[in-house]
Amino acid sequence: MEFNFYRLKIWEKAHSLTIEIYRVTKIFPFHELYGIVSQLRRASASIAANIVEGYSRRSRKEFIQFLYQARASLDEVIYFLILSKDLKYLPDREFEKLINEASELMKMINSLISKKKLNP
């Protein structure tokens, strides 16, 4: 089965980040299952979902709006990663890896927003 969004590097990066978030949150304390774990997983999945939904829209303006929503979800993920590190739920090594991935994804989102704004 072939889906058009599969070809988007930005979607691949967002999906990869989501998979990593799910992987690392398996070791979080059980009492955080409906707290930080749920928030991190939901926000990370929202990034890729917004990219897919925006890409599926017919207008450039709508795509840009969904990219802004993806960026906001990414900001939320970054905050919860910082909180997780500060609460000692996330080892420094994992934190650095995920923050680097998030930073790369943020650059990709910002770049795509700029390109879409300049090239109708």
Descriptive account of the structure:
The chain has 120 residues and is mainly α. The protein has one domain (10-118): 23S rRNA-intervening sequence (de novo design (two linked rop proteins)). The protein contains 4 helices and no strands. It has helices at residues 9-25, 36-56, 60-86, 92-118. α1 runs antiparallel to α4 and α3 runs antiparallel to α4. The model has no long low-confidence stretch (mean pLDDT 94).
What name does CATH use for the topology?
A: de novo design (two linked rop proteins)
What Rg is obtained from the alpha carbons, in whole angstroms? Answer: 15 Å
- Count of discrete alpha- or pi-helical segments spanning 4 or more residues: 4
Fraction in beta strands: under 5%
Can you give the mean pLDDT?
94
Q: What is the count of β-strands?
A: 0
Element-level helix/strand string: HHHH
Give the tally of structural domains: 1
* Alpha-carbon distance between the two ends: 30 Å
CATH class: Mainly Alpha
Residue stretches low in confidence (pLDDT < 50, at least 5 long) are: none
The oligomerization state is: single chain
**Structural class, from helix and strand content?**
mainly alpha
Tell me roughly what share of residues is in helical segments: over 70%
What overall form do the CA principal axes indicate? Answer: elongated
* Main β-sheet description: none
Q: Topology of this protein?
A:
Blueprint: H1 9-25, H2 36-56, H3 60-86, H4 92-118
Helix pairs in contact: 1-2, 1-4, 2-3, 3-4
Features:
single chain, 120 residues, mainly alpha, de novo design (two linked rop proteins)
